[in-house]
Structure formats: C-alpha cells, structure tokens
C-alpha cells in the first residue's frame, strides 16, 4: 500500500466517463481510500442521456452505476469508503428509484443515499440566458453546481451521494471541504488546491499514463491500469499516486498532462466554487509513482454558474469504404464525388456533407505530414439531413457504387448499414448563482 | 533535416463545446524557451488551417514547462453535432506536432518500437501484422 501522510484524506478517482472500467475499482480499494469519486458526465454524455430520457422518462442517469456499486459494495457496506458520483445525469431521482428497487437484490439495504437536485433548469426557464432557444425546445438544460449540496449530504451521513450536473472537480473537492472543514467563503487557495486535485483525478487513467503523449510505450503493465489516488492534507497539499498492485504510472509527465487537460485560459479556470490559477501549480516528482502538488492559488468564485443546454439538430449517419493500391486516393475521391451526385439526383436534400480520407489527411487536414502514395485509403462519408428517413436513404444511393461505379475494389471498412442518429446543438451560457442555489435540494434516505 | 515540434515536445488535446484546446509540453527549460519563441498563436493558427474556423490564443504555463493553445470553433460544431470522425478533437495534438521549427537542429524524436508489446510477458497472441 502507498504510504499515507499524517492527517491526509485519501480520495480515489474511480471513473472517468460513462463507459469506463469498473474492474479498476478492486485495485483502488486495496489502497483503502476514504472516498471514491465516480465522474460519469462529459458534455457529450448529457446528450446521450437526453436521448435515453426521450425514449423513457425513467431513464437519464448513467446506467452502469449498479456495476460500480457492486464493485464498491464491501467497502460501502462496512463504512470504509464513501462514494460520490454524478451518475444521476439529467435524472438523479430516477437513479435513486432504480437503487430503491434493486436494493434487496444488490444487498444495498442499510446504505444511506443522498440525491442532490436543482441543476435541471428546464422547470425554471426564467433563469436561462435570454439568447437560449425557447424552453420547450430544450432536450436538457443543466447548471454546473458546486460542492455545497454534496457537502450537506456528507454532513447528514450519506454513504453514497448521487448528483446530476455538478462541476467534475466538485465531486472530489466536496469531501475535502467536509473533512478538513474548509469554508466555502474562506481561503480561495484551499478551494483551488482541492479543485486541482479533483481535476487531476476526474479522468481516471488519464492521470496514470493513459492517453499519454510522451513515452506511452514505457508505461508499465498497461493491461491492468491503476486509477489515480490523492492524499490531501488540510493545508491543501496533495500527493497523487496509484495503487501499488496495479499498472500504469504517475510522474511529472502524466500529471502535468491531466493538470491542463480541457483547461481553456489556465490563468482563470472557472469553476462553481473557485477560480483556479493553473499557472500557479507546482508539481514535484517524488519518484515511485508519487507526485506532490503544491503552491496552488485561486480567487473567489464568480456570481454565475455555467449552464449547458441542447436542442435537436437534425440527423446524421456515416459510411466508411476502403480502397487498396493502386491509386487508392484517386478511387476514394472519385467515389465521394459520385456519391454526392447520385444523392443529389435522388432528390435528397443534405444539410451537411463531410468527406474524410483516412490514410491521407482525415484527422490532421492541412497539418498532415506530406507523404507518398498511400497503399490503402479509407473513405469516410458523413452526412446530415433534417429528417431520419432521408438520412437512411442516402446510404442506398452510395452502396450500389460497389458494382456500378467505375472505381474498382470498394469494400466496406466496417460491418452493418449506416444508422441515422439524432444530432444535438449545444448552447452554453451563464445563470445567476443565487437563483439556482435557491432551488438546490438534498434528499437523504436509507435503503 | 527538418525539425518538427514532435522532435522536441509532446502534446495532449481536449475539447469543450466547439472549442479544442492543445497543451504542449517541453522536457526542459531550454526547450520550453525555444517553443515560447517559435510556436506562436499565429503560427499555430496558420498551420491548422481550415481545421480551426475561429481563433487561436496561447498562454504560457512555465512551472510545468507547458504552452496552452485554445482554438475556438475548431470541431465542426462540437461533440454531439460534428460530422467529423474525430468529433472531440482527440487526435488534434498530432496536428500541432507536425509544425516545423526554424533554425533548430535537434535529434529526431524518441519513437516506440514497431510492435511495442511484442516481448511483454502478459501478451497472449501472436504478433500483430
């Protein structure tokens, strides 16, 4: 087990997205964390959950939550670790309803659960920014809440806290505020330090050698990835590490990549609880998969919360076709032009048409390295239409080119036919913090 | 020999809405100073061309030897509405690394073995093609 500094609270980053690996929790638990925080919501995740809820009003949470709870059950039941998650998605009460129903079968009886609500602003449209589309068009509209609701839940004895949209790092900052008694209107440097810890831990393996731009091929035992842990003392200093029994790596390179990940202006990283100056952060590589974080400064939070909403934005599908040598690129380009013309002749109106040549410049566009003739090219066609039927019809005018188009040797790069999926347009703005806070509720019950 | 950013540094991309952010990491102070001088927001904007429909801004993060670039309107609509295969810009760091540096004669970048886990004791199957 990794050594723990005196007085430190040990926090584990047990999930980095909806669809992450619950199996990693077993290794995390060997390090006896006080809190396991499960971050399930990327921006895109809310869109996925909105589609779920459109089909079924009892959905809208991340449906792998029970898998995580099963892994955590022994620690949870014995009170060794408390669990904080935003798996409630856009429908936290539905996640609670699921747990109530599943509690006997899962052995969750006796677990005290708290649900934090108030981030969903669809019922309070008067709070939304005036430039947003009319509320009846919104698939979801959620404010990014801070730690207050979670801290309240912990103070009321919750073993498991389920939230909707809160700032990712708030899941990790909340237990530090609770354990160390940091005041929410107190020293912003402490809140900033806790937020940095959360930011480093919130993407699971991305802090421990995953998605590694550096010497990724040297990361040890990559088939059994250790998720990150942090030991945080009351002065805000932290040591990031990983389970001793697991693979992965924690060093200056893995931590600094995650430190700046998805940060825009690093001098003022806005969160609901504090504004963090990421340029103040000092990292000290202690060796042995331990990195010390210190020197963090921040300033008080603004009077607004970020709100993200989405509206339906037509349908899209795609089709990938592979071509081999010789002249793979020419065959792919010709096929793209032929397909576009045939779709037009069929009378289908496209809102957007996107052509990518994998093996040439699909990913890096004009920044792609110049290369000779590629031996193989995958043509990816993607299109957008106003309605689902015409979106599906497009493929029927492209696939016949396999036999009835001059370029030879066209083969699908994947199996299965293109399926239309609904697109969502995201809308981002600011809402008044106090007005949102007035609607935040914390419900606590024992299963 | 042409020296590219990849020969000196590595990078990680991220996304928020329709914006992409790129973090560039130097191995030491001297390299960091060189990147500060050469990898300007204007050069990155020109290098990424039509991939970025908006602006490129840059910040220096010297304590961790990093530069941060924020590229607005860079994901063809953003995650849930982009038609790009890489709708979240997960591969955009590589596009930054192809940028050529001027007057720099660096050894070529460290590269992985062709089949990195070929000799790993946990490997189950025969070598990949």
List keywords for this structure.
heterodimer, A: 447 residues, alpha+beta, Alpha-Beta Plaits, 2 domains, ten-stranded mixed sheet, six-stranded antiparallel sheet, 12 helices, 19 strands, 26% strand, globular, B: 129 residues, four-stranded antiparallel sheet, two-stranded antiparallel sheet, 3 helices
- What is the straight-line distance between the termini of chain B? 30 Å
Major sheet of chain B: 4 strands, antiparallel
- Overall mean pLDDT of chain B stands at 94
Helix content of chain A: 25-40%
Task: Let me know the largest β-sheet of chain A.
Answer: 10 strands, mixed
Number of helices of chain A: 12
Biggest sheet, spatial arrangement of strands of chain A: 11-12-8-7-1-2-3-6-4-19
Q: Gap between N and C termini of chain A, in Å?
A: 32 Å
Q: Which two chains touch over the largest interface? A: A-B, 58 and 53 residues
Our estimate of the beta-strand percent of chain B is 15-25%
How would you write the strand order of the largest sheet of chain B?
Answer: 2-3-5-4
Structural class by SSE content of chain A: alpha+beta
- Named CATH architecture of chain B: 2-Layer Sandwich
CATH structural fold name of chain B: Alpha-Beta Plaits
Spans where pLDDT lies below 50 across 5 or more residues of chain A: none
Order of helices and strands of chain B: EEEHHEEHE
CATH C-level class of chain B is Alpha Beta
Provide the number of structural domains of chain A. Answer: 2
Treating each run of at least 4 consecutive H or I residues as one helix, how many helices of chain B?
Answer: 3
Tell me the structural class of chain B.
alpha+beta
SS elements, strand count of chain B = 6
What does this structure look like?
The complex is a heterodimer of chains A (447) and B (129). Chain A is of the alpha+beta class and 447 residues long. In chain A, strand 9 and strand 10 form a beta hairpin. The longest helix of chain A has 18 residues. Chain A is globular and about 70 Å long. The two termini of chain A are 32 Å apart. Chain B has one domain: Alpha-Beta Plaits (2-Layer Sandwich). The two termini of chain B are 30 Å apart. The mean pLDDT of chain B is 94. In chain B, strand 4 and strand 5 form a beta hairpin. With 129 residues, chain B is α+β, with helices and mostly antiparallel strands. In chain B, strands 2-3-5-4 form a four-stranded antiparallel beta sheet. Chain B has a two-stranded antiparallel sheet with strand order 1-6. Chain B contains three helices and six strands; from the N terminus they run E-E-E-H-H-E-E-H-E. At the A-B interface, helix 2, helix 8, strand 14, strand 15 and strand 16 of A face strand 2, strand 3, strand 4, strand 5 and helix 3 of B.
């Amino acid at each position: 087990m990794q050594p723990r500094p005196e007085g430190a609270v040990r926090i584990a980053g047990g999930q980095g997205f909806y669809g992450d690996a619950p199996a990693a929790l077993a290794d995390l638990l060997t390090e006896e964390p006080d809190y396991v925080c499960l971050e399930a919501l990327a921006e895109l995740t809310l869109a996925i959950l909105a589609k779920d809820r459109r089909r079924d009003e009892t959905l809208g949470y991340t449906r792998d939550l029970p898998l995580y709870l099963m892994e955590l059950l022994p620690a949870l039941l014995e009170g060794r670790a408390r669990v904080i998650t935003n798996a409630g998605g856009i429908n936290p009460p539905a996640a609670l309803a699921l747990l109530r129903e599943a509690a006997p079968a899962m052995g969750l009886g006796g677990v005290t659960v708290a649900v934090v609500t108030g981030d969903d602003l669809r019922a309070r449209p008067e709070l939304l920014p005036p430039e947003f589309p009319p509320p009846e068009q919104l698939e979801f509209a959620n404010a990014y809440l801070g730690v207050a609701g979670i801290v309240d839940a912990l103070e009321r004895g919750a073993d498991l806290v389920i939230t909707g949209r809160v700032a990712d790092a708030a899941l990790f900052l909340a237990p530090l505020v609770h354990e160390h008694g940091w005041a929410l209107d107190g020293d912003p440097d402490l809140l900033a330090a806790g937020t940095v810890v959360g930011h480093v831990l919130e993407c699971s393996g991305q802090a421990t050698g995953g998605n590694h731009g550096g010497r990724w091929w040297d990361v040890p035992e990559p088939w059994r990835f250790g998720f990150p842990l942090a030991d945080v003392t009351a002065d805000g200093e932290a040591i990031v590490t990983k389970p001793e029994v697991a693979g992965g790596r924690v060093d200056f390179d893995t931590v600094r990549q995650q430190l700046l990940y998805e940060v825009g202006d690093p001098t003022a990283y806005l969160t609901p609880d504090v504004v963090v100056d990421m340029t103040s952060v000092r990292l000290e590589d202690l060796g042995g998969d331990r990195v010390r974080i210190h020197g963090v400064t921040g300033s008080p939070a603004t009077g607004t919360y970020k709100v993200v909403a989405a509206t339906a934005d037509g349908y899209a599908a795609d089709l990938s076709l592979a071509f081999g040598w010789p002249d793979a690129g020419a065959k792919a380009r010709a096929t793209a032009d032929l397909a576009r013309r045939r779709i037009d002749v069929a009378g289908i109106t496209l809102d957007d048409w996107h052509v990518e040549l994998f093996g040439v410049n699909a990913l890096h566009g004009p920044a792609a390295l110049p290369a000779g003739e590629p031996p193989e090219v995958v043509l990816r066609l993607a299109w957008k239409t106003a309605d689902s039927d015409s979106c599906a019809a497009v493929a029927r005018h492209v696939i016949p080119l396999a036999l009835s188009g001059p370029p030879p040797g066209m083969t699908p790069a994947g199996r299965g036919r293109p399926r239309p999926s609904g697109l969502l347009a995201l809308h981002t703005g600011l809402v008044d913090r106090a007005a949102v806070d007035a609607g935040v509720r914390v419900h606590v019950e024992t299963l | 020999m042409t020296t590219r950013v990849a020969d000196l540094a590595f990078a990680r991309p991220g996304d928020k809405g329709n914006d992409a952010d790129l973090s560039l990491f130097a191995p030491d102070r001297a390299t960091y100073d060189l990147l500060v001088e050469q990898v300007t927001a204007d050069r990155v904007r020109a290098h990424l061309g039509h991939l970025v429909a908006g602006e490129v801004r840059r910040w220096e993060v010297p304590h961790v030897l990093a530069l941060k670039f924020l590229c607005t309107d860079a994901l063809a609509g953003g995650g849930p509405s982009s038609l790009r295969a890489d709708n979240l810009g997960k591969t955009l760091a590589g596009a930054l690394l192809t940028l050529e540096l001027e007057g720099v004669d660096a050894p070529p970048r460290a590269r992985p073995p062709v089949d990195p886990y070929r000799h790993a004791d946990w490997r189950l199957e025969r070598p990949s093609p």
